[in-house]
Amino acid sequence: MFDQTIRPRRLRASDNLRRLVRETRISPESLIWPVFVIEGEGVYEEIPSLPGQYHYSPDQLGRMVERAHAHGVSRVILFGLPAHKDERGSSAWDENGVVQQGIRKIKALAPEMYIVTDVCMCEYTSHGHCGILCGHDVDNDKTLEVLAKTAVSHVRAGADMVAPSDMMDGRVAAIRRALDENGFIHVPIMSYAAKYASSFYGPFREAAGSAPAFGDRRSYQMDPHNGREAMRECALDAAEGADILMIKPAMPYLDLMYRCRQRFDLPVAAYQVSGEYAMIKAAAKADLIDEYGVMCESAVCIYRAGADILITYYAPELADAIRKGDIG
């Protein structure tokens, strides 16, 4: 007779029981939706490289707010497309810059919406690099000054959180100091702590008009070969005062998300980047995959690896899936 005490068992259960015993839980409140704000008026245009995502001029952000409310999304991260670019990216910290306008408009329409802002120079500089140049090289220390000014200007406009994505050394400390000196001690920093020089960013660079005019960003973004370096970057940002550590991209770097979760007692964010989203969309359009199923499974895997927060273009659809019980 088979010994029942050592028999391995796999749970065979109804849908209700499977949902009850799920190890990985996801909430709509942990989703952040990327939003592109473009300077001008009357602009509401679908982004060709990111089907289902739009460029909104500030006066059209009501459309975004309505869509967010309809799906139960309450957190967004803003990226700006200015009309004017120069060598220093001076429109980034202009009090009437495109992101600053967008923040004020959203807060006027939906005061409860939680606004995170991306803090970087690539969308504002004429050369498309993430900092101030000295020749063809980014000057780290000069860049810290403008990043800090940009973060402060976003918070003055009403941002709830800032997220530096430039990968300059010391930028978390510089931004924390500037925020504190201006009385914004309560505003958290979500650091793009391990941001890789990835080929998955292509659709975003088209959407944000931020491709570098020459060279690449490998001198300040991370080499995909390196994992231990990512943990050093996370440790440095944590020591400088980061409140949340982000791994970017998400799916190709799940191993680092897991390692970050195990090592640091801070919330971990993942960015499911434009290339990840666009590949799912393209494969679904070609009838190669079930888009809904892949969307849900991808999100679950990211959370299972250790993410507490997910930045994703699928935020509205994922919020619906969570409410339906398909994930979450």
From TrEMBL:
InterPro entries: ALAD, ALAD_AS, Aldolase_TIM
SUPFAM superfamilies in UniProt: Aldolase (SSF51569)
Class in the EC hierarchy, top level: lyase
Encoding gene, per UniProt annotation: hemB
Name under which the protein is recorded: Delta-aminolevulinic acid dehydratase
Residues holding Zn(2+): 120, 122, 130
Lineage, top ranks: Bacteria, Bacillati, Bacillota, Clostridia, Eubacteriales
Species of the source: Agathobaculum faecis
Protein's job: Catalyzes an early step in the biosynthesis of tetrapyrroles. Binds two molecules of 5-aminolevulinate per subunit, each at a distinct site, and catalyzes their condensation to form porphobilinogen.
Enzyme nomenclature, EC number: 4.2.1.24
The protein's assembly and partners: Homooctamer.
Catalysed reaction, written as an equation: 2 5-aminolevulinate = porphobilinogen + 2 H2O + H(+)
